[in-house]
Structures are given as C-alpha cells and as structure tokens.
Specification:
By secondary structure, the protein is of the alpha/beta class. 40% of the residues lie in helices and 19% in strands. The protein has 19 helices and 21 strands. Helix 15 crosses helix 16 and helix 15 packs across helix 19. It is globular. The protein starts with a strand and ends with a helix.
Amino acid sequence: MSAKKMLAIDLGASSGRGIIGGWDGGKITLDEIHRFSNDTVMMPGGFFWDTLRLLFEIKTAILKASHAGGIDTIGIDTWGVDYGYLDKTGTLLSNPYHYRDTRTDGIQDYVFGKFLTKSELYAKTGIQSMNFNTIFQMAADLRDRPWIVENAESMLHMPDLLGYMLTGKKASEYTIASTGALLDARERDYARDIIAKFGIPERLFCDIVQPGYNMGKLLPSIEEETGFTGADVIKVASHDTASAVLSVPAQCDDFLYISSGTWSLMGTETKEPALTPVSEKYDFTNEGGAGGTIRVLRNIMGLWLEQESRRQWKREGKTYSFDDLSNMALASKPLQCFINPDDQLFATAGNMPGRICEYCKKTGQHVPENVGEIVRCIFDSLALRYRWTAEKLEELTGKTYPVINIVGGGTKEEMLSQFAADASHKHVSAGPVEATALGNIAAQCIASGEIKDIKEARAVIRNSSEVKEYEPDTATAAQWDDAYGKFLTLLGK
C-alpha cells in the first residue's frame, strides 16, 4: 500500500494555508499545518500583494512539513489573473498589483477604443470581460508605467511566480494562464495576434505546461531553509477554481458546479470552449481545467458581499460572527429586496451595507433596515443569480442539469445552499468544504501515478469527504418564482 505525503499550498485572497495531504491508496486525508493571513498593502502607487511575505509563509509551511515527517511533492494554487514581472537577472521588478486596484477602472473603454472590439477579444479568448483580466492589467501597465514592461524579461502569474521563487524555473501553467484573456481558447496557447495588437512584448510569456508537470527540486538555498525535504514541485491545476472543480464529487460527466467563497464561480465542464453568440451575449468565460477540459462559467461576486459588509460593521464597532449574521438573516422576512451581485457598485472595498441600501432605494425597492435584512438581501440575491446562471448554461449547452454541486468554504453557509436549491428548483449537493486543497492534492496524486485520472480522483474525493444534500422546498416555490420575475426586471433582462 502506498503512503504518499503531499503539501498543498492554497492561497486565497485573504488567507493562505499549508495542508499535508495523505494518500493511503484509498482515501485522501488533510492535515492543516500552517495558516497565515494574506495581508494586502495599500501604498502610494496602488493596491498590492505582499509577495515576499507570501514566499516566507510558504517556506514556513515546507519547514513545518519537514518536521512533521517529510513530504514527497508540493503544489501551489492561487487566485487568477494577477502576475509579476521579472527582469533579466530574474529579480521581481515590483510587487504584483491586486486585481481590485483602481488603475483598471474604465480600462475596457480605453482598450476597446484603441486596440480591438470586445467581440474580437471574446471570439479569440472566450473570457468574460472584467476590468481586472490580465490583458487589461497589462494594457494599464503599458499606458501608465511603460518602463516596467520595457525592463521586464518575463511575466509569471502568481502561482508560477511563487513556484519560480522556490525552484528557479519558469513555466506558465495552463489553467492559471487561461484566466486573463491571453490565450487562444481553441488552440490553448497564447493568442499572439491579440497580444501583438496590444503592443505587449511576446518575450514576456513563458512556455505553457499542463497540470501534472514536474518542475523538479527546490533550490539548494530553499532546501537548506526548509529542512531538506527532497520534494518535487508539481504544477497542479494552479488556478484555485480549477483545483476546486477537479474535486467536484460528481457521479456523471455533465454537471453544474459552484466554487463558493469570496467569489461564486458557477459553470459546467466541457471538452471544447463555448464561443457562440449565446455565450458572448451572456458573457460566459472559458477557462482551462485539468485533464484538457474547459470550465465554461460566470464569475459571480459571491460572499465578498457579506465579508465586506462584516468588515464595515466591525469598523463601526459592531462585531458579528458569520453564524450571527446567518441567524439574523434567517430571522428576517424573505425576498423583500434584491441586488445585482455583479453590479460594479459592489466590486471594491468600502461601505458595502451603505451601497446595498443605496441600490435598493435607487431601484424603488424596500430598503433594508437592519443587519439581518442586509444579509438576507445578499443571500436571496445570490440564490436568484445562481438560478439565472443555471438557466443560461442550459440554454448554452442544450442540456438539463438536475443537480448543482457546490464546493468550497461557502458550503459552510448552509442557508445559502438551501436557498440555491429553493430558487433554482434543483437538488443541491454541497461539499467538500476543502475543495481546492483536495483538488491540489489529487493533481499531485495523478502526477505521481497514485491515481489514474480525474474520474478516479473524483471517486476518491467522494469517498474521502462529507457532502450534504439539499432538496428544494416545494412550499416556497411560488414565492421564489415571483421573486425571480422581479429579479429579472431588476437586471433589465
């Protein structure tokens, strides 16, 4: 029987973890050995990630893993789109910008007026047009600080950048590279004609490699710092959503998923990209997945709305746990008012409760009067957005999906999972919570030959995780249908 140990470095927008995955030939076990905050930095010049601090925390996780008995492999996953530039000596030129930095406000108007049309970009890359897409960020770099690009020898997305800092080797992993509208969705390689139109130097882009690619050992200096593990660094599905989708414990080939957390990434898995008038009309994105798959999905604002509201209340001296917020929401009258979660009004940090009330007042709805009503508005609105997205995916693919699989930390919000079932009239299967870490570990198992493929990995994950089931409440079906009609009016659909 095999007894492999693998370290998953899972970096989210607010925190990171080092998790040892154990494989006994039948199940994957997880042991969190290091947790740390991912503290972003606002300073003159913008809003940045503290990349060197992240490297320090990753090295700490590796050292702890060494003390815990060692590891065989290491895999890193992070959020998408963000990146750093390296000069010809391999030195980081500046801290990577945070995707919520304001330098890309209005960038789409600039790009579509100067370089190409929105339809031309979508037809090639198949990526939902969002102001923080990598190609838009790079356009802002060329416009606002061209000297950085001129002095850059290469560009690496965050997991690739951190992997380079550990191994000294450069490569662009497919799933993370696919997030930023830089790739030809059909060819699964750089859209060189599009990149040329922007004036982005082609020298910046490293070779694309697929999940499972072995980057080799840690640098000698890193090995010395971290306990001489002798571990190989594996390119997992390094976009965190790609890792989360790999772990969806679906029992059939056709399924809907929501990777639920700060964002709700909702979609389906296909063999080929969806590049049709329908997919463009509804702005669905085509991102790379493990095993040569495509993740056809939409980015929905997700629990950022609740998280940022909670931060605002804390700034005002009122501290609530997430359980407190859920209980207050459950005690509030349902379906009184709604927001479009994806309205740009809610995209940036700040007074989220005030913005929600402002939106409801502006659209002629009931204005939430207390904390519970604001959180209820958020949850009701997300559930209705899930229904809209499910319907559009069925229209796009010509398939019917009776089940929505929700994975990730957002499954802890049991009320939202139930609302998703009620609003969509679909069965909801929620779990695993640790979806991204499980997907990261499963990719390492596949790379080492311990697990055959994604299908087997999903069966293993079903056998290793708790999954909760939710049936739609037929007694409230008419209320949700009425609410959905109002929600569609609100969207202008």
